[in-house]
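[agent] plan:
  1. take the single chain provided in the ticket
  2. run structure prediction with default settings
  3. attach structure tokens to the ticket
  4. add a short note for the reviewer (M.T.)
[agent] executing step 1
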Amino acid sequence: QTRGRFSLWENGTLMVRDASVFDRGTYMCKVDTEYGPSVMNFPVIVIAYPPRITSEPTPVIYTRPGNTVKMNCMAMGIPKAEITWDLPDKSHLTAGAQARLYGNRFLHPQGSLTIQQATHRDAGFYKCTAKNILGTDSKTTYIHV
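[agent] step 2 finished; step 3 output follows
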């Protein structure tokens, strides 16, 4: 039996795919026998999980020339996810321990990207990717200037 990310095998094994911190808690296995029910509890703590972007930009952003545009890209993941941005000019930015300024683009350590005084050259697709050893998650937005 499969329901979403959960599969129950014939031998009673429960399998959870793409586990995240939200799957933590106590799972209860109940077996009905001719002698009555038997119950066993399994506490589950998720200590490593692939990234999941929890704060993301809207799919399309409309702005006027000269305005400031801020796109959030924050992710949960253990080990901590590395945040990168792919820009319309095919360049790549990687968030570091310190805030960084790339021309008119400001990259925050948590992954947010701010475009200051936007021009028509800033229009296009921006892709945010969160990656750790267990997997990746990405979101794309299009900026119209």
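[agent] step 4 note for reviewer: The chain has a mean pLDDT of 93.
[agent] ticket updated
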